[in-house]
TrEMBL record:
O-methyltransferase that catalyzes the 2 O-methylation steps in the ubiquinone biosynthetic pathway. It catalyses: a 3-demethylubiquinol + S-adenosyl-L-methionine = a ubiquinol + S-adenosyl-L-homocysteine + H(+); a 3-(all-trans-polyprenyl)benzene-1,2-diol + S-adenosyl-L-methionine = a 2-methoxy-6-(all-trans-polyprenyl)phenol + S-adenosyl-L-homocysteine + H(+). Its EC number is 2.1.1.222, 2.1.1.64. The lineage of its organism: Bacteria, Pseudomonadati, Pseudomonadota, Hydrogenophilia, Hydrogenophilales. This is Ubiquinone biosynthesis O-methyltransferase. Pathway: Cofactor biosynthesis; ubiquinone biosynthesis. GO terms for biological process: methylation. Keywords: Methyltransferase, S-adenosyl-L-methionine, Transferase, Ubiquinone, Ubiquinone biosynthesis. S-adenosyl-L-methionine binds at R39, G59, D80, M124.
Length: 235
């Protein structure tokens, strides 16, 4: 791995340890499976459909969203720096028949090789795990074609997110392993928007995601104080 890559080795190791459980819907990755349909539908709405479009999923992990976008008709490439996660993703794609191309490479390096290439760029739950999120945002902007759509999903740095995403999700409800997130690395929408605009992206839409512990269901909401998705356009 390139020593100058925008990556935290501890974060890669943390998710690599769990890689074999990525496609188990009852595992630590259960929340990703349950929110995937919500995310997919929202991304489709923001980009006017995925059929026939070139898409790159930055920080794809085991490929849950990556495969879903391929099944929706997109030509999808998934990139990540976890060799174990990518191995799982490739094996699952062989089993499911999803036409996905996977590559182990940093977003910044991939952007240098493929500037202005993709109709849609997705980067889900990655910005809060890298040392320099602004660098990742610049790379995603560079990968998008003019007129393309870039979608991020991350967590807001608020008192409510500490209560719900750390105390609630990791310790009380045990939806995620303890230590999955570092609240200080959460990102406010204004921070992402500022970095994105500097990189040539214009905000299009933002929406929050909530969880009902009684029904055990996730839902989209206007409240962006905890989890949120933001779509931006490259002009």
């Amino acid at each position: 791995m390139n020593a100058t890559a925008n990556v935290d080795p501890n974060e890669i190791a943390k998710f690599s340890e769990l890689a074999h459980r990525w496609w188990d819907p009852t595992s630590e990755f259960r929340p990703l499976h349950e929110i995937n349909p919500l995310r997919l539908d929202w991304i489709i709405a923001q980009c006017g459909g995925l059929a026939g479009k070139r898409v790159v999923d930055v920080g794809c992990g085991g490929g849950i969203l990556t495969e879903a976008m391929a099944h929706a008709g997109a030509e999808v490439t998934g990139i990540d720096l976890s060799e174990k996660a990518l191995t799982v993703a490739k094996l699952h794609a062989l089993e499911s028949g999803a036409p996905v191309h996977y590559e182990m490479i940093a977003a910044e390096a991939f952007a240098e090789m493929h500037p202005d290439t993709f109709d849609v760029v997705t980067c889900m739950e990655m910005l809060e795990h890298v040392p320099d999120p602004a660098s990742t945002i610049r790379a995603c902007a560079k990968l998008a074609k003019p007129g393309g759509t870039v979608c991020f999903a991350t967590l807001n740095r608020t008192a409510k997110s500490y209560l719900f995403a750390i105390i609630g999700a990791e310790y009380l409800l045990q939806l995620l392993p303890k230590g999955t997130h570092d609240w200080q690395k959460f990102l406010k929408p204004a921070e992402i928007t500022a970095w994105a605009e500097t990189a040539g992206l214009t905000p299009k839409a933002i929406i929050g995601m909530g969880y009902n512990p009684l029904t055990k269901r996730y839902f989209l909401t206007d409240d962006v104080a905890v989890n949120y998705l933001i779509a931006l356009a490259k002009w």
